[in-house]
Amino acid sequence: MQKIINNTQTIINASQLNAVSITDRGLNYGDGFFTTAKIVNGQVEYWHHHKARLAECAERLAFPELDFSPLEQHIQNQVKQKQTGVLKILVTRGEGGRGYNLPSECHLTIIVSVLEYPANYNALAEQGVSLEISPIKLAAQPLLAGLKTLNRLEQVLIKKAMQTQNCDDVLVLDYNNQVIEASAANIFAIKHGKVFTPKLNECGIKGVYLQALCDKLTVEFKHITVNDLTKADAVFVCNSLMHAVPVKRIEQQCFNVAHSNALLTKLLAKEA
């Protein structure tokens, strides 16, 4: 492996007319990672968790260490006037290298985008989400498990398959038929006052909201089947944009949304 001897970062504000090179490794190989955060009153929610995610991705994918000082200043300039919105930070290894080989000098490209907050999230939080099982299963790759890399083709296929399903979102399984996540969110459940969520050691993404929840509650990571979820007292999907949203239906099994919210509120109040 070639030694990385330079760490030059180019920050691009996606709202301006900047361009990414056609030879960028993120475009050609998916050689990069990203995080998506909620903006509230000019601040980035759970920023320390998003920052930790970016740092972990850089380390595990053998990127140079990120210099957060100019990045954080750039982000603050972009979000300070925004009451509600979405911040996306995308990092690629830049250009260079022969084929898949790493470049001898690494010039990272960082793209910062500020987007509108999804209009349907508030309604989903109130009404709950209906879930069906996706026909697309996730392949195992422990080296990438938990990371939010640019390789999202599985999720593209999952969303395409959802067009023929009568639901708000889907449960995505691995090839051992273990529940992993939703199409773009984590899953957790409550049973007898205890919180559990799927193991993500072979595939899937460990989201920022789930990590923040682990700061407040004892959450058990374990192998979970669809049957385990349908027998739970409450099931939620969660990500950093919509937070925890109750599930109202998994296939034919229905849940009481108000009861689910009450169970979670009680647990959070107990640990506060």
UniProtKB/TrEMBL annotation:
Keyword Lyase: yes
Alphabetically ordered keywords of this record: Folate biosynthesis, Lyase, Pyridoxal phosphate
Tagged with keyword Disulfide bond: no
Pathway the protein takes part in: Cofactor biosynthesis; tetrahydrofolate biosynthesis; 4-aminobenzoate from chorismate: step 2/2
Cofactors demanded by this protein: pyridoxal 5'-phosphate
Enzyme class: lyase
Catalyzed reactions per annotation: 4-amino-4-deoxychorismate = 4-aminobenzoate + pyruvate + H(+)
MF terms in GO: 4-amino-4-deoxychorismate lyase activity
InterPro entries named among the record's database cross-references: Aminodeoxychorismate_lyase_IV (IPR017824), Aminotrans_IV (IPR001544), Aminotransferase-like (IPR036038), BCAT-like_C (IPR043132), BCAT-like_N (IPR043131), Class-IV_PLP-Dep_Aminotrnsfr (IPR050571)
EC number: 4.1.3.38
Alphabetical list of PANTHER family matching this protein: AMINO-ACID AMINOTRANSFERASE, AMINODEOXYCHORISMATE LYASE
Family: Belongs to the class-IV pyridoxal-phosphate-dependent aminotransferase family.
Oligomer status and interactors: Homodimer.
Name assigned to this protein: Aminodeoxychorismate lyase
Source organism (scientific name): Pseudoalteromonas marina
Lineage: Bacteria, Pseudomonadati, Pseudomonadota, Gammaproteobacteria, Alteromonadales
